[in-house]
Amino acid sequence: MKPKTHTPVAVPLPDDDAFIRLPGLFRRWELEQVLDPGNDFHFEPAGEAADGTALFAVYRRERSLTTNPSKED
Amino acid sequence: MRASWEALHAGLVRSVRTLEADNQFHEARQHYPQLASFNDPGAVISHLTGDGGDRDAKDQLLATLVEMVQAGDAAELASSLLWLGLWPGLDAVFRRRLVSFSWDADELVSQLSAAFTQVIADLNLDTVCRVAASLVRSTERTLLEDRARAWRDVCRCEPLDERRHAEALNALSKALFGGGERDPRSLEAEVASLRRWLASVVGADGDLLLSVVVLDETQHEAAARVGLTYAATRKRLQRVLRRIRQEIADGLSHSDLQIRVCHPRVRFTGGTAE
Protein backbone atom coordinates (compact mmCIF):
# COMPACT_ATOMS: atom_id res chain seq x y z
CA MET A 1 0.00 0.00 0.00
CA LYS A 2 1.44 3.35 -1.01
CA PRO A 3 1.53 6.21 1.50
CA LYS A 4 -1.54 8.40 1.46
CA THR A 5 -1.44 12.13 1.41
CA HIS A 6 -4.32 14.37 2.30
CA THR A 7 -3.47 17.25 0.04
CA PRO A 8 -6.51 18.00 -2.11
CA VAL A 9 -5.87 17.95 -5.83
CA ALA A 10 -7.40 20.89 -7.64
CA VAL A 11 -9.77 20.15 -10.50
CA PRO A 12 -7.29 19.48 -13.29
CA LEU A 13 -7.92 21.35 -16.49
CA PRO A 14 -5.48 21.39 -19.42
CA ASP A 15 -3.55 24.38 -20.72
CA ASP A 16 -4.92 26.02 -23.83
CA ASP A 17 -1.80 25.06 -25.76
CA ALA A 18 -2.00 21.33 -25.01
CA PHE A 19 -1.95 18.78 -27.80
CA ILE A 20 -5.44 17.26 -27.92
CA ARG A 21 -6.01 13.80 -29.33
CA LEU A 22 -8.27 13.39 -32.33
CA PRO A 23 -10.80 10.56 -31.99
CA GLY A 24 -9.83 7.20 -33.44
CA LEU A 25 -6.66 5.80 -34.96
CA PHE A 26 -5.32 6.59 -38.42
CA ARG A 27 -3.48 4.65 -41.12
CA ARG A 28 -0.48 6.32 -42.70
CA TRP A 29 -2.32 7.33 -45.86
CA GLU A 30 -5.20 8.76 -43.87
CA LEU A 31 -3.01 11.28 -42.08
CA GLU A 32 -3.17 13.83 -44.87
CA GLN A 33 -6.92 14.04 -44.33
CA VAL A 34 -6.42 15.52 -40.86
CA LEU A 35 -3.43 17.75 -41.61
CA ASP A 36 -3.93 21.44 -42.14
CA PRO A 37 -1.38 24.23 -42.11
CA GLY A 38 -3.03 26.16 -39.28
CA ASN A 39 -2.25 23.64 -36.54
CA ASP A 40 0.64 21.73 -35.00
CA PHE A 41 0.46 17.94 -34.96
CA HIS A 42 2.01 15.12 -33.00
CA PHE A 43 1.87 11.45 -34.02
CA GLU A 44 2.26 8.40 -31.83
CA PRO A 45 2.46 4.79 -33.04
CA ALA A 46 -0.64 2.95 -31.86
CA GLY A 47 -0.15 -0.65 -32.92
CA GLU A 48 -1.40 -2.39 -36.00
CA ALA A 49 -4.73 -3.08 -37.64
CA ALA A 50 -5.87 -6.68 -38.28
CA ASP A 51 -4.30 -6.54 -41.74
CA GLY A 52 -0.93 -5.52 -40.32
CA THR A 53 -1.19 -1.86 -41.29
CA ALA A 54 0.51 0.51 -38.85
CA LEU A 55 -1.88 2.75 -36.91
CA PHE A 56 -1.21 6.18 -35.44
CA ALA A 57 -2.78 8.33 -32.77
CA VAL A 58 -2.95 11.98 -33.83
CA TYR A 59 -2.75 14.96 -31.49
CA ARG A 60 -3.51 18.49 -32.63
CA ARG A 61 -2.68 21.89 -31.17
CA GLU A 62 -4.14 25.11 -32.49
CA ARG A 63 -1.26 27.27 -33.58
CA SER A 64 -3.14 30.49 -32.85
CA LEU A 65 -3.12 29.57 -29.16
CA THR A 66 0.66 29.12 -29.07
CA THR A 67 1.78 32.03 -31.23
CA ASN A 68 3.67 34.67 -29.31
CA PRO A 69 2.32 38.05 -30.49
CA SER A 70 5.48 39.84 -29.51
CA LYS A 71 7.44 37.83 -32.06
CA GLU A 72 5.13 38.90 -34.85
CA ASP A 73 5.69 42.57 -34.27
CA MET B 1 -27.95 27.75 -15.44
CA ARG B 2 -25.74 24.75 -16.12
CA ALA B 3 -23.11 26.60 -18.14
CA SER B 4 -20.35 26.48 -15.54
CA TRP B 5 -21.12 22.83 -14.76
CA GLU B 6 -20.99 21.87 -18.43
CA ALA B 7 -17.84 23.93 -18.89
CA LEU B 8 -16.23 21.93 -16.11
CA HIS B 9 -17.26 18.70 -17.84
CA ALA B 10 -15.88 19.91 -21.16
CA GLY B 11 -12.60 20.88 -19.51
CA LEU B 12 -12.30 17.49 -17.85
CA VAL B 13 -13.01 15.66 -21.11
CA ARG B 14 -10.36 17.77 -22.82
CA SER B 15 -7.89 17.08 -20.00
CA VAL B 16 -7.97 13.31 -20.55
CA ARG B 17 -7.51 13.69 -24.31
CA THR B 18 -4.17 15.46 -24.14
CA LEU B 19 -0.83 13.98 -25.19
CA GLU B 20 0.38 14.40 -21.62
CA ALA B 21 -2.61 12.48 -20.25
CA ASP B 22 -2.06 9.62 -22.68
CA ASN B 23 1.62 9.41 -21.74
CA GLN B 24 0.76 9.43 -18.04
CA PHE B 25 -1.86 6.75 -18.59
CA HIS B 26 0.53 4.43 -20.43
CA GLU B 27 3.07 4.91 -17.64
CA ALA B 28 0.44 4.20 -14.98
CA ARG B 29 -0.71 1.02 -16.75
CA GLN B 30 2.66 -0.53 -15.96
CA HIS B 31 2.25 0.05 -12.23
CA TYR B 32 -1.47 -0.49 -11.73
CA PRO B 33 -2.78 -3.82 -13.11
CA GLN B 34 -6.38 -2.58 -12.96
CA LEU B 35 -5.57 -0.17 -15.81
CA ALA B 36 -3.72 -2.69 -17.98
CA SER B 37 -6.73 -3.79 -19.98
CA PHE B 38 -7.58 -0.25 -21.14
CA ASN B 39 -5.93 1.30 -24.17
CA ASP B 40 -6.46 4.92 -23.21
CA PRO B 41 -8.21 7.13 -20.63
CA GLY B 42 -11.36 7.30 -22.74
CA ALA B 43 -11.77 3.54 -22.47
CA VAL B 44 -11.70 3.81 -18.67
CA ILE B 45 -14.45 6.40 -18.72
CA SER B 46 -16.59 4.38 -21.13
CA HIS B 47 -16.22 1.34 -18.90
CA LEU B 48 -17.10 3.21 -15.70
CA THR B 49 -20.11 4.99 -17.13
CA GLY B 50 -21.40 2.06 -19.18
CA ASP B 51 -24.43 0.10 -18.05
CA GLY B 52 -22.82 -3.29 -18.31
CA GLY B 53 -19.82 -4.76 -16.57
CA ASP B 54 -19.05 -6.17 -13.17
CA ARG B 55 -19.80 -3.70 -10.38
CA ASP B 56 -17.06 -5.13 -8.21
CA ALA B 57 -14.53 -4.71 -10.99
CA LYS B 58 -15.66 -1.12 -11.53
CA ASP B 59 -15.29 -0.47 -7.84
CA GLN B 60 -11.77 -1.88 -7.86
CA LEU B 61 -10.94 0.36 -10.79
CA LEU B 62 -12.28 3.39 -8.92
CA ALA B 63 -10.29 2.35 -5.85
CA THR B 64 -7.16 2.24 -8.00
CA LEU B 65 -7.82 5.76 -9.23
CA VAL B 66 -8.37 6.99 -5.67
CA GLU B 67 -5.13 5.31 -4.65
CA MET B 68 -3.31 7.08 -7.49
CA VAL B 69 -4.65 10.47 -6.41
CA GLN B 70 -3.74 9.87 -2.79
CA ALA B 71 -0.28 8.63 -3.71
CA GLY B 72 0.34 11.46 -6.18
CA ASP B 73 0.84 9.07 -9.12
CA ALA B 74 -0.56 10.78 -12.21
CA ALA B 75 -2.89 12.40 -9.71
CA GLU B 76 -4.44 14.93 -12.06
CA LEU B 77 -5.25 12.30 -14.65
CA ALA B 78 -6.66 9.94 -12.01
CA SER B 79 -8.71 12.76 -10.56
CA SER B 80 -10.14 13.61 -13.98
CA LEU B 81 -11.01 9.96 -14.55
CA LEU B 82 -12.80 9.84 -11.20
CA TRP B 83 -14.75 12.97 -12.10
CA LEU B 84 -15.78 11.65 -15.49
CA GLY B 85 -16.31 8.06 -14.35
CA LEU B 86 -18.70 9.25 -11.65
CA TRP B 87 -20.18 12.10 -13.66
CA PRO B 88 -23.73 10.66 -13.80
CA GLY B 89 -23.84 10.50 -10.00
CA LEU B 90 -22.21 13.89 -9.52
CA ASP B 91 -24.55 15.42 -12.09
CA ALA B 92 -27.49 14.08 -10.12
CA VAL B 93 -26.07 15.74 -6.98
CA PHE B 94 -25.70 18.99 -8.91
CA ARG B 95 -29.32 18.90 -10.09
CA ARG B 96 -30.64 17.95 -6.65
CA ARG B 97 -28.76 20.65 -4.79
CA LEU B 98 -29.10 23.57 -7.15
CA VAL B 99 -32.12 24.82 -5.28
CA SER B 100 -30.18 24.76 -2.01
CA PHE B 101 -27.77 27.23 -3.53
CA SER B 102 -30.50 29.63 -4.60
CA TRP B 103 -29.90 28.53 -8.21
CA ASP B 104 -26.37 29.97 -8.02
CA ALA B 105 -24.75 27.34 -10.25
CA ASP B 106 -21.29 28.89 -10.12
CA GLU B 107 -21.24 28.71 -6.36
CA LEU B 108 -22.54 25.16 -6.37
CA VAL B 109 -19.90 24.09 -8.89
CA SER B 110 -17.22 25.63 -6.74
CA GLN B 111 -18.46 24.00 -3.54
CA LEU B 112 -19.11 20.65 -5.18
CA SER B 113 -15.63 20.61 -6.71
CA ALA B 114 -14.04 21.36 -3.38
CA ALA B 115 -16.13 18.71 -1.63
CA PHE B 116 -15.38 16.00 -4.20
CA THR B 117 -11.66 16.77 -4.14
CA GLN B 118 -11.63 16.59 -0.36
CA VAL B 119 -13.60 13.35 -0.27
CA ILE B 120 -11.17 11.69 -2.67
CA ALA B 121 -8.24 12.78 -0.55
CA ASP B 122 -9.83 11.59 2.69
CA LEU B 123 -11.38 8.31 1.52
CA ASN B 124 -10.14 5.34 3.53
CA LEU B 125 -9.96 2.48 1.05
CA ASP B 126 -9.41 -0.04 3.84
CA THR B 127 -12.88 0.52 5.26
CA VAL B 128 -14.99 1.39 2.22
CA CYS B 129 -17.15 -1.31 0.65
CA ARG B 130 -18.58 0.54 -2.33
CA VAL B 131 -16.18 3.18 -3.63
CA ALA B 132 -18.55 4.71 -6.18
CA ALA B 133 -21.40 5.15 -3.72
CA SER B 134 -19.07 6.37 -0.99
CA LEU B 135 -17.52 9.03 -3.20
CA VAL B 136 -20.80 10.41 -4.49
CA ARG B 137 -22.72 10.26 -1.22
CA SER B 138 -19.86 11.62 0.84
CA THR B 139 -19.49 14.49 -1.61
CA GLU B 140 -23.16 15.37 -1.27
CA ARG B 141 -23.00 15.06 2.51
CA THR B 142 -19.89 17.25 2.68
CA LEU B 143 -21.57 19.78 0.43
CA LEU B 144 -24.60 19.97 2.70
CA GLU B 145 -22.58 20.03 5.89
CA ASP B 146 -20.50 22.94 4.62
CA ARG B 147 -23.65 24.76 3.60
CA ALA B 148 -25.36 24.11 6.93
CA ARG B 149 -22.24 25.21 8.82
CA ALA B 150 -22.26 28.48 6.92
CA TRP B 151 -25.78 29.33 7.97
CA ARG B 152 -25.26 28.19 11.55
CA ASP B 153 -22.30 30.56 11.72
CA VAL B 154 -24.54 33.38 10.60
CA CYS B 155 -27.15 32.54 13.20
CA ARG B 156 -24.61 32.40 16.00
CA CYS B 157 -22.87 35.56 14.79
CA GLU B 158 -19.57 33.92 15.57
CA PRO B 159 -16.42 35.32 13.99
CA LEU B 160 -16.06 33.95 10.48
CA ASP B 161 -13.55 34.29 7.74
CA GLU B 162 -14.59 36.81 5.14
CA ARG B 163 -15.41 34.36 2.38
CA ARG B 164 -17.81 32.19 4.33
CA HIS B 165 -19.25 35.26 5.93
CA ALA B 166 -20.01 36.79 2.55
CA GLU B 167 -21.48 33.55 1.19
CA ALA B 168 -23.85 33.12 4.06
CA LEU B 169 -24.95 36.71 4.11
CA ASN B 170 -25.56 36.84 0.38
CA ALA B 171 -27.67 33.71 0.57
CA LEU B 172 -29.60 35.23 3.41
CA SER B 173 -30.15 38.50 1.60
CA LYS B 174 -31.23 36.83 -1.62
CA ALA B 175 -33.67 34.61 0.16
CA LEU B 176 -35.30 37.43 2.05
CA PHE B 177 -35.06 40.33 -0.34
CA GLY B 178 -34.08 38.89 -3.72
CA GLY B 179 -31.29 41.43 -3.69
CA GLY B 180 -27.75 41.32 -5.00
CA GLU B 181 -24.38 41.31 -3.30
CA ARG B 182 -24.07 42.95 0.06
CA ASP B 183 -21.36 45.36 1.00
CA PRO B 184 -18.46 43.16 2.14
CA ARG B 185 -16.93 45.97 4.16
CA SER B 186 -19.51 45.78 6.92
CA LEU B 187 -20.40 42.10 7.03
CA GLU B 188 -20.52 41.65 10.75
CA ALA B 189 -22.60 44.76 11.19
CA GLU B 190 -24.99 43.60 8.47
CA VAL B 191 -25.38 40.17 9.97
CA ALA B 192 -26.11 41.61 13.35
CA SER B 193 -28.51 44.12 11.84
CA LEU B 194 -30.33 41.48 9.82
CA ARG B 195 -30.71 39.19 12.79
CA ARG B 196 -31.97 42.03 14.94
CA TRP B 197 -34.50 42.90 12.26
CA LEU B 198 -35.71 39.31 12.02
CA ALA B 199 -35.90 39.01 15.77
CA SER B 200 -37.93 42.20 15.98
CA VAL B 201 -40.39 40.94 13.38
CA VAL B 202 -40.73 37.23 14.12
CA GLY B 203 -38.85 36.72 17.37
CA ALA B 204 -37.12 33.41 17.94
CA ASP B 205 -38.75 31.92 14.85
CA GLY B 206 -36.25 33.82 12.74
CA ASP B 207 -33.70 31.05 13.14
CA LEU B 208 -36.29 28.44 12.15
CA LEU B 209 -37.08 30.42 9.02
CA LEU B 210 -33.43 30.74 8.09
CA SER B 211 -32.78 27.06 8.52
CA VAL B 212 -35.48 26.13 6.02
CA VAL B 213 -35.65 29.03 3.59
CA VAL B 214 -32.04 30.05 3.23
CA LEU B 215 -30.10 26.86 3.10
CA ASP B 216 -30.72 23.16 3.06
CA GLU B 217 -32.73 22.02 6.05
CA THR B 218 -36.05 20.42 5.20
CA GLN B 219 -39.13 21.23 7.22
CA HIS B 220 -39.05 17.69 8.61
CA GLU B 221 -35.45 18.12 9.73
CA ALA B 222 -36.15 21.52 11.24
CA ALA B 223 -39.15 20.12 13.10
CA ALA B 224 -37.09 17.30 14.57
CA ARG B 225 -34.33 19.68 15.59
CA VAL B 226 -36.57 22.07 17.50
CA GLY B 227 -38.79 19.32 18.91
CA LEU B 228 -42.02 20.17 17.09
CA THR B 229 -44.27 18.13 14.87
CA TYR B 230 -43.95 18.61 11.15
CA ALA B 231 -47.43 20.09 10.93
CA ALA B 232 -46.74 22.59 13.70
CA THR B 233 -43.44 23.59 12.11
CA ARG B 234 -45.08 24.04 8.73
CA LYS B 235 -47.78 26.28 10.16
CA ARG B 236 -45.25 28.25 12.13
CA LEU B 237 -43.15 28.85 9.03
CA GLN B 238 -46.18 29.95 7.03
CA ARG B 239 -47.07 32.40 9.79
CA VAL B 240 -43.51 33.73 9.99
CA LEU B 241 -43.31 34.26 6.22
CA ARG B 242 -46.62 36.13 6.21
CA ARG B 243 -45.38 38.43 8.95
CA ILE B 244 -42.11 39.12 7.14
CA ARG B 245 -43.90 39.86 3.86
CA GLN B 246 -46.23 42.19 5.68
CA GLU B 247 -43.35 43.92 7.42
CA ILE B 248 -41.43 44.41 4.18
CA ALA B 249 -44.56 45.62 2.44
CA ASP B 250 -45.27 48.15 5.18
CA GLY B 251 -41.74 49.49 4.86
CA LEU B 252 -41.97 50.16 1.14
CA SER B 253 -43.78 52.71 -0.91
CA HIS B 254 -46.64 51.43 -3.03
CA SER B 255 -44.59 51.66 -6.24
CA ASP B 256 -41.67 49.82 -4.68
CA LEU B 257 -44.08 47.23 -3.42
CA GLN B 258 -45.24 46.31 -6.88
CA ILE B 259 -41.69 45.73 -7.98
CA ARG B 260 -40.15 44.01 -5.02
CA VAL B 261 -42.78 42.08 -3.13
CA CYS B 262 -45.00 39.27 -4.32
CA HIS B 263 -48.21 38.86 -2.34
CA PRO B 264 -50.19 35.92 -3.58
CA ARG B 265 -52.71 36.11 -0.77
CA VAL B 266 -52.40 39.56 0.76
CA ARG B 267 -54.36 42.33 -0.92
CA PHE B 268 -53.36 45.91 -0.25
CA THR B 269 -56.12 48.46 -0.35
CA GLY B 270 -54.18 51.55 0.68
CA GLY B 271 -54.06 54.80 -1.26
CA THR B 272 -52.70 54.85 -4.78
CA ALA B 273 -49.38 56.41 -5.67
CA GLU B 274 -49.53 59.94 -7.01
Question: How would you characterize the overall build of this protein?
Answer:
The complex is a heterodimer of chains A (73) and B (274). In chain A, 5% of the residues lie in helices and 32% in strands. Chain A is mainly β. Chain A has a domain at 20-65. In chain A, strands 1, 2, 3 and 4 form a four-stranded antiparallel beta sheet that branches. Chain A is flat. Chain B is mainly α and 274 residues long. Chain B folds into two domains: 3-147, no CATH class; 166-260, no CATH class. The longest helix of chain B has 26 residues, at 131-156. Chain B is elongated and about 70 Å long. Chains A and B meet through strand 1 of A and helix 1, helix 2, helix 4, helix 5 and helix 7 of B.
Shape of chain A: flat
User: Based on DSSP secondary structure assignment, what is the total number of beta strands of chain B?
Assistant: 0
* Total discrete domains of chain B: 2
The rounded distance between the terminal residues' Cα atoms of chain A is 55 Å
Name the structural class of chain A: mainly beta
**What form of chain B results from the Cα inertia axes?**
elongated
Largest sheet report of chain B: none
Order of helices and strands of chain B: HHHHHHHHHHHHHH
Strand content of chain A: 25-35%
Residue runs with pLDDT of under 50 for 5 or more positions of chain A? 1-9
| Low-confidence parts of chain B | 177-188, 253-274
Specify which chain pair forms the largest interface: A-B, 21 and 31 residues
Percent helix of chain B: over 70%
As an assembly, this protein is heterodimer
Q: How many helix segments of chain A?
A: 1
Element-level helix/strand string of chain A: EEEEH
SS class of chain B: mainly alpha
Query: Measured on Cα atoms, how large is the radius of gyration of chain B?
Result: 24 Å
How much helix, percentage-wise, in residues of chain A? under 10%
Instruction: Please state the CA-atom Rg of chain A, rounded to the nearest Å.
Output: 18 Å
Distance between the termini of chain B: 40 Å
